[in-house]
Amino acid sequence: MRLRFRLRIKTTVCSTLASILILAITFRFCHLRIIFVVHTGQKVHMFNLILFGPPGSGKGTQSDRLVEKYGLIHLSTGNLLREEIANKTPLGKEAKKFIDHGQLVPDEVVIGMVDSFFDRHKNVNGFLFDGFPRTVAQAQALDKLLTLKKTDIAVVLALDVTEEELVKRLLNRGKTSGRSDDNSEDVIRKRFAVYTNETSPVADYYKKSRKFKAIHGEGSVDEINAALRQAIDKAMAVHKD
Ligand code: B4P
What we know:
65% helix; alpha/beta; 2 domains; single chain; Rossmann fold; five-stranded parallel sheet
């Protein structure tokens, strides 16, 4: 009787141990599988930010400082287009017709240019997009390109400046820049109208994903830079998690 009782206890203990062992092995494999799945689908750690705002709001001025501070790659579609124009490439000749009249260059031209810029810049810490996207179609194309790279936009910082201040800045820049789109108030006003109709909906696109933050864009370059850095540091801390 005692022997049978002991045997039953031993069997119970053994089967419990076996169950624990099986559970442990199963867990180990599941765990490995979970790690494997997470690893293969894992996001590449990049910090991508968009500097958004109307013409003359200081995107280019601030970008130069921010890319240096954070080690990001500066992607300015305005600069890329001006390079194409200076080199008199077919793309540049086509883009010039639009820029001279204060219009946006067609989406397919800009998106193709951004795509080839990505191909030339692999394994980077992140991008600072300056003046891109300027239409909702460009924003959607950017999302697709970043998804292919297993990354996304961390934050959109929008420089807020009144129209009168913008006109003053652009006419002033036009005196020395030689830019065809800066030396006539008519063309400058046309650029604002294009901004209101075609570019401002991009802000709503990013507001939906709560990535949008407005920054007061008037004051000294240093003051605005400090406000941008504060917002970037905050976004970086969240994006790390
Ligand atoms: P961009 O090159 O993007 O230039 P921007 O909007 O004119 O100026 P930004 O905001 O960079 O101002 P900046 O710092 O220079 O576009 C040019 C054109 O290219 C577009 O109109 C469009 O035709 C075409 N294009 C570009 N991207 C496109 C896209 N994605 N799709 C279609 N078309 C596209 O500052 C302006 C001036 O203000 C400077 O003189 C600066 O010194 C001054 N300034 C800056 N900060 C100041 C401050 N805090 N106080 C006083 N002045 C300040």
